[in-house]
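In response to the reviewer comment on reproducibility (Comment 2.3), we provide here a single inverse folding case reported in full, input and output, so that an independent group could reproduce the run without further information from us. The structure tokens appear first.
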């Protein structure tokens, strides 16, 4: 991965995680740094007729989808017309408990956008060691109960979706990053071999789902959809 791309992504994740800790899981302030980074990075090597919108960058663009209207996380426009949207998910805790819901929501959002001819991309950030908290009242964080180690089981549904090229409600572009934080709160990409993942899983994560590949494919999708 290009060094400045890697650094920019991790810096945005750090700012996002700090905002999450400061403002809580329900505040959309936590999303501004990473959404803004994607919105700026994608169009940085496209022409002047491209623009982007997100939290922190002119606000979220509301699209009239096939089944319902929705404000999208990041939208790329060509001559003010929406051509590609991106959804972003950073799972900070309790992944195993909610993973099926995340996946089902992704399929629904993909169908809603792709059925109107707009491109759709999704980027997912997971933690190699994911904390599991008890439920607490309001926006408070519950008590830490355990640490969940990411495994092939947690990722396989996304790999199956990636390989299912005939499925019409599959995202046009899919990316996944697995990260952890050091004691100072700085993010780093997890050494996938320490998770004891299958070799095929590691290969797909590193070659097909990487940030570099994701950005390149989204730019190509923008050129295709303009």
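Designed residues, in position order:
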């Amino acid at each position: 991965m290009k060094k400045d791309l890697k650094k920019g992504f991790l810096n945005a994740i750090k700012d996002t995680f700090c905002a999450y800790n400061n403002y809580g899981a329900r505040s959309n302030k936590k999303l501004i740094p990473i959404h803004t980074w994607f919105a700026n990075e994608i169009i940085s090597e496209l022409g002047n007729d491209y623009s982007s919108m997100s939290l922190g960058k002119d606000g979220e663009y509301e699209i009239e989808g096939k089944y319902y209207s929705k404000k999208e996380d990041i939208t790329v426009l060509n001559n003010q017309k929406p051509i590609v949207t991106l959804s972003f998910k950073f799972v900070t805790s309790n992944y195993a408990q909610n993973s099926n819901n995340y996946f089902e929501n992704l399929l629904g959002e993909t169908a809603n956008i792709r059925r109107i001819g707009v491109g759709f991309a999704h980027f997912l950030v997971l933690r190699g060691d994911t904390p599991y908290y008890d439920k607490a009242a309001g926006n408070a964080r519950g008590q830490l109960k355990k640490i969940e180690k990411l495994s092939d089981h947690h990722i396989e549904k996304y790999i199956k979706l990636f390989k299912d090229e005939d499925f019409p409600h599959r995202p046009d572009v899919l990316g996944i990053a697995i990260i952890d934080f050091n004691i100072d709160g700085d993010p780093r990409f997890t050494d996938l071999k320490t998770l004891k993942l299958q070799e095929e899983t590691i290969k797909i994560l590193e070659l097909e789902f990487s940030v570099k590949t994701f950005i390149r494919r989204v730019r190509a999708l923008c050129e295709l959809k303009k």
